[in-house]
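User: Hey, quick favor. My workstation is busy. Could you predict this chain's structure for me?
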Amino acid sequence: MFDFFRKAAAAEVPEGKASAVGPLMAGSGATTGKQAAIAEALRPRWTARDSVSLTRAGFLGNPMGFRVVRLISEAAAALPLVLQDAERRYDEHPLMALIRRPNPVQGKAEFLEAVYAQLLLSGNAYIEAVAPPEPAETATPAPAAPVELHVLRADRMSVVPGPDGWPAAWIYAVGGRKHRFEMGQGPAPVCHIRAYHPMDDHYGLSPLEAAATAIDVHNAACRWSKALLDNAARPSGAIVYRGAEGQAQMTAEQFERLQAEMEMHHQGARNAGRPMLLEGGLDWKPMGFSPSDMEFHKTKEAAAREIAIAFGVPPMLMGIPGDATYANYQEANRAFYRLTVLPLVAKVTAALGHWLAAHAGEAVALKPDLDQVPALAVERDQQWRRVSEAGFLSDAEKRMLLGLPRLTEEG
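Assistant: No problem, here it is.
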């Protein structure tokens, strides 16, 4: 805040433009290296739009992004699942046992939470199937369910398109080594679940990328608040120098001494409220917040609201003040499940069930059990009541409307 006292010209910063169109954007007049450096410093800094950078900025370094991803993934992973075909629901089945214990180090909740989190953070989720050992005497092995399932990190996977445009292989790269998953004649060794992307044929679009601008604004607001606390948690001011003979310029030694004393004795939370002792010729002029500074916290709340909306979480559930879209918390929670969690779970379980059914050679479907979702209990009770009171429907039609398998002759 003392830079305006310095009259001597600072050393020029060498030009560092890398873009070939940089001179065109600067206008027809020539720009000096110092002007280019100032323009670069004033330009907004945005996070790179790759999945690793967005995950670090929007999940590892942002409380709103962290909470919405955890909220959705944990709620989705906690939903009970059912496996059924056209005739019955299975209480015990090899595929259900595989879902309950997909690998030696993960259970169902942890495994599915990783799948949903990868889909939310990168727009892509990859699941590897570990096939059972093939008998040596069998030329064409019969379909068999995988013995293990593993979630692969999306930032390490890349799709290899074939001549027809469909994926021919997937490459998993880590630590300088690569493993290639080939797409053979049978079921795919990798289940690739991706969010819809209107401009990409092989990779999905994550909510994190759509909310990247709001995440940068929210992070910048947090850094601004931290900087304010580091500077005694109050607005800065200006020290005006008037020399004995009316001169308004300090010597370099005086300037450096004043700057060192201010940093040591009057900045930071530990020095908050400490009285300032000014020597001859120095006068303190406090500077209050401007109206834009006073509204800065509202900018942070608006950015938090945009992050929650991009992920489909009602802002009321995130504790964002000033949002009254829903009448109460229960209604917001029901909308969260109905509009965000259930569509995500239906998408993932349908893809996962179809992939596992192809491995096992069975026509079964994996889906969430809506009867055991507490947030939807009121809606489910109303639906059951309406269907049961519809006398013009047969029992088979009622079961179909309720998502139940049709009755067999035995029961």
